[in-house]
Amino acid sequence: MALQDLQQECRRRAAKKLAATLQFPDFRFPTRLSAEQSTSDDLAELHAAMIPEGQRIVDLTCGLGIDAFHLARKSARVTAIDLDPTVSAAVEPNAKALGISNVTAVNDDCARWLKNASAGSYDICFIDPARRGEDGRRLFSLHDCRPDVTALLPEIFRVAGRLIVKMSPMLDIDAIIRELPGTQRVYILGTQGECKEIVADVRADFTGEPEIIVQTIDQPDFRFIRGELPIAETFGGEIKPGDTIGEPWPTMMKANPRAALSGRKLHPETHLWLNPDPDFPGKLYKVERIEEFSSGNIKRLARQGLEASVAVKNLPITASELSKRLKVKESATSRLIGCTISPSGRLLLFLSPLC
To answer: In what order do the strands lie in the sheet with 345-353?
Structure first.
């Protein structure tokens, strides 16, 4: 592909994800893959907020360098390492295009680089292991990703006292804490519609219980330590028109703080809350109508020309299957949720958004 065509295609595809970076006309994409796999400006800014000013940072898998550039604006210096020579060669020119002068690019394997680095020469190691195999298959285990961060821990902590690891949102939080001893904080990052990633903040000398921090872009942070949450939970409750239903942001559902959320959870495995407080960390809906979830009702409702955004919570059917059976036309102005309530009832909730 011609260089000009590559730039036009990558800029078009990354226009939303890299809106801030692409305000600089001289920024260049070295490869299509580096554009596809780069973090967004919004998420990179959340990563930069995790570090204090004036740190010495090494990004062990920098790729396009978006994280490295955001980190550099707060840091004393950033060393950006990448195995791909084409990608690595673009880092320093792009830093210059963004007005950043404290980024040094290194074309090397990060495991080899760590072995040769001086002890204590950095404050923070930042790493985003590859989440896809050579066959394009998604990788979810830290051990399967490349590099294997767990195997590099001794060398990482020889070079720096702190490690920040970006991971797939599909990873289990308990497994992360087990595999990364010294995890002080676990960040769950995303938008109002999607959990994007999990980030572990690991310290060489930390031994306590980690804090879970949920950061949904454009929403307040939600923080908790599991051992400090209330033990008791209440489930169920009669639902009636006019009630409020809270549907947590995807980041909150991943964090699963349970009793820390206000209102009554409809069922232990149904992530909906009845009549929560106005500051509930998720979408709030007003209950307009309630129907029993049954074959007869579904056939009757399918003749009504329903328009809604369909979701299911704790039902043996997918949202697309339910939408197809109900012959629903997609609409952003109403919500239809099929769900199980405690102890065994199943309902179709017709909802309108409150915020």
So the answer is: 264-267, 270-274, 244-248, 282-292, 345-353, 335-341, 309-313
Read off φ and ψ for residue 96, nearest 5 degrees: -65, -40
Q: What angle do CA 78, 84, 85 make, to 5 degrees?
A: 85
Using an 8 Å Cβ cutoff, are 110 and 130 in contact?
Answer: no
Most confident of 47-56, 124-133, 337-346: 47-56
In the chain, DSSP assigns E strands to 56-59, 77-82, 103-107, 124-127, 162-167, 183-190, 195-203, 211-216, 222-224, 244-248, 264-267, 270-274, 282-292, 309-313, 335-341, 345-353
What SS3 state is found at 80?
Answer: strand
Runs of H (alpha helix) within 119-170:
149-159
Looking up tokens 């020119």 gives 93
**Dist CA 185 CA 261 (whole Å):** 20
Tens digits of residue pLDDT in 248-292: 999 999 998 877 788 888 888 898 999 999 999 999 999 999 999
DSSP class of residue 219 equals: S
The model's pTM is: 0.89
Asked if the model's pLDDT at residue 235 lies above 80, the reply is: no
- Tell me the two tokens of residue 12: 């078009």
Helices (H), 1-64: 3-13, 32-37, 41-48
pLDDT at position 243 is 96
pLDDT at 181: 94
